[in-house]
């Protein structure tokens, strides 16, 4: 018998959401969230106050500002600030479910966590962006957008005074390139059709040249 496709589709959607918000999905059969490393897992002696910390994730990079004394300020998508004012509850480590719902609700919190809670087991790069810039601490609930107001905008504003996200710029350039490519195909099709109308029926050998790009464009 065929399996019910609904649970499979729901599982696939959840996996895509997890990838979208740079969180690795839990292993099959896992009963809960994987806890962050114990204190002391990271050597913070090489960090200086104001250092920009980067943690590579599955698709994106998470950013924070080192405040000294094993504390990192960073912006995390989080649903709890939108539904409760309990600071003690909000300050607990953000779980995958809270993070995903925060992305969907476009709500985030600017929070201060330990290096362990911030990095969550990932490797840390320090001041990797300094070469891209020539030189304010914000804590509390704020609006969140994966493209226009994310953790990279937050840390570049704090350290360099300009909210910039190179990940967003790269994504937008890719989208623009795709749109330009599709427009060029459509333009070629329209020119071909216009030549048929003005000059008569085109030879049979040229018809595939006109219509194949059109069908490819429609399929894309």
UniProtKB/TrEMBL annotation:
GO terms for molecular function: phosphatidylcholine-retinol O-acyltransferase activity. GO terms for biological process: retinol metabolic process; vitamin A metabolic process. The active site is at residue 151. One of its GO terms (cellular component) is rough endoplasmic reticulum. The chain crosses the membrane at residues 185-218. Residues 52-167 form the LRAT domain. It holds the Pfam family LRAT. Residues 1-28 form the signal peptide. This is LRAT acyltransferase.
